[in-house]
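User:
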Amino acid sequence: MVWGAEYAFLSAFWGICSLLPPRVASAIGHRLVWSYAPRLSKFRHSVRNLSIAFPNKSQEEIAALARQSWAATGRVLAEYPHVGRICAGSADEGPEMLVDSEVEDLVRDGKPIMFVTAHIANWEIAAGAIAHRLGLPLSVVYSPQQNPYIADRVLRMRRGLACELIEKRKSIRGSLAALSKGRSIGMLIDTRSDEGELVPFFGIDAMTSLVPARLALRTKVPMVPVRVERREGASFRVHLMKPIRVSAEARDEHEAARALTQDILSHYEAWITERPGDWLCSKRRWPKDITRRAASDAPA
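Assistant: Predicted structure:
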């Protein structure tokens, strides 16, 4: 019954958004979630994550950033019916693309690339921009929604991204199969992974998956950080940055994977520090003991 109610609400919301221009739908999603965010049960997770990442900010600043983060989530939800249209737009209407010269060479040579990004701005746009604007065959790892009705609807809307989707529990086998066919792959690795290892994030150890780094090392596929920035409304900039290099000091594959992962997280830290309100952080990121300490200092 709960799943049905959730689906009915979101289905109606997406139906309305699909009839509106992307910028208008995005603004409505922002306003709707901005109004109700502090009443949502997961709002506290955003507050605690931001409190840990930015210990020098006041309670009022943290509360304001958490609200901005949830309002950004509202925009992402409202933009789902339009992701294909946004990504396939003309050079003037679609995402602005900034591509590092080394990445341009890789694309020109037709070599597979591992693109890694984070839940910042609208990360969905990264996949669509790469597939539509660069013409790369792309397979993206995703985590399905718990609600099966919503999961099916989201998958249908994601068809507009023009990329193959690999369910997270099949990520290793699916990624290897994609790479063997010459396809590039995309992964989000900023969230907590209980099967991962402790890697510093904002200077504090957080459970993080080393699988993308290990996969890149074993297949010798270059890792390229992708930053998505929201410029205004439903307009975006997608920056394909310089490939991350394997540390020359690494003694073995495990140490090299940790170094690669740390480098990726350092990119994320810089992006989040510059625009913390664009970081969608509604799930616990750090160990429970650290989160509990942050909760005692966080705004009510």
